[in-house]
Write a structure and sequence with these properties.
- With 134 residues, the protein is of the alpha+beta class.
- It contains five helices and five strands.
- It has helices at residues 2-12, 34-45, 100-111, 115-118, 121-125; strands at residues 52-55, 62-67, 75-81, 88-90, 95-97.
- A hairpin with a 4-residue loop joins β4 and β5.
- The longest helix has 12 residues, at 34-45.
Length: 134
């Protein structure tokens, strides 16, 4: 049942609209892995991380469906996480999410940038996911 609800909801997030990874981004190693992205998405959306379901179709951002809780399997939101900066986006409203705990985590991610990579940080932070509904 859960997989059917996710499959139906995934149709709402068009697989043909995929954010393109900028060429300059390829020169900087990604600082966020899938597990860290799930925790960042949960912090940014103020949602339990166990209800963040990873959607592997997006290749330039980590994309998570915020599922409806213990008994709700339909997504109540779609969250994109920038794999370089840890910025968290609500892909429906196309807004960058921010909470105190999220900002602390993002500051720790920024400290992982080497001096040669740091000059790309602002450009990488400007990369947005493909937004829907806004």
């Amino acid at each position: 049942m859960r997989s059917h609800a996710i499959a139906i909801a995934c149709c709402l997030v068009s697989s043909s609209a995929v954010a393109v990874t900028p060429a300059y981004a390829r020169s900087v190693a990604q600082k966020v892995d899938e597990k860290a992205a799930q925790l960042l998405a949960a912090k940014g959306y103020s949602w339990p991380s166990k209800y963040m379901d990873y959607d592997r179709r997006e290749n330039s951002f980590f994309l998570f469906a915020a599922l409806g809780g213990e008994y709700g399997t339909a997504p109540v939101g779609w969250i994109g996480v920038n794999p370089w900066t840890g910025d968290v986006w609500d892909v429906w409203s196309c807004t960058r999410l921010s909470t105190d705990t999220l900002r602390k985590s993002q500051a720790a991610i920024r400290r992982r940038f080497r001096p040669g990579e740091l000059w790309e940080y602002d450009r990488l932070r400007a990369v947005k996911p493909v937004c829907h509904g806004a």
